[in-house]
Amino acid sequence: MKDVIIEPSWKKHLADEFQKPYFQELAEFVKKEYQDEVVYPAPKYIFRAFDLCPFDKVKVVILGQDPYHGKNNGRPQANGLSFAVNEGQRLPPSLQNIYKEIATDTGTPVTNQSGDLSRWATQGVLLLNATLTVRAHLAGSHQGKGWEQFTDAVIQKLSDEREHLVFILWGNYARQKGAHIDRSKHLVIESAHPSPFSAANGFFGSKPFTKANEYLEAHGEKPIDWF
Prior knowledge:
It is a single chain. The protein is α/β, with parallel strands linked by helices. Helices cover 36% and strands 12% of the residues. The longest helix is centred in the first third of the chain and has 16 residues, at 21-36. It starts with 7 loop residues before the first helix and ends in a 9-residue tail after the last helix.
């Protein structure tokens, strides 16, 4: 498949994946969904996480599950980055808790309360959802169509071909998805999910942001400015 519009380094590293039958079927399914239904995010944002964070620039991977399937202030929330929303939109509860943990973890409050986390992505944080599209108002509606296989391949490719990355896995779903990461050459940080339903059960106090930066600095990498 030559018409996948994605950042060039990712297109090169995932070229074999795009040729596999499952991805051909996934592409046809997604194309038809966008024609027949309201689907998020906007087509130009499907691969935004990759477009903002080229393969060789990745330092940290934060795994989410599905894009947001609703609107906020009359605009779609999903913008192609896990946990993020567009500029000017109300922060989702999980992101509010992420900012709370940054503040307690680092001792410094987050002054930039924008939900658009592109400022992280351009520093090397791959904000990757397991499923990259969703039908409006139907959570999980594009699960089991091939996206999970694709994003598993992304994680495996990073694990195999890069060194000294930080994988942040929040919640059981992300932990399962990251089960095959090579922990002998990468740091894997696991905790409860930042959702209000689970944040108090091990997310708060887990200090993923300072742990990530300490690891990056120990391996000669510039730390992430989480603020």
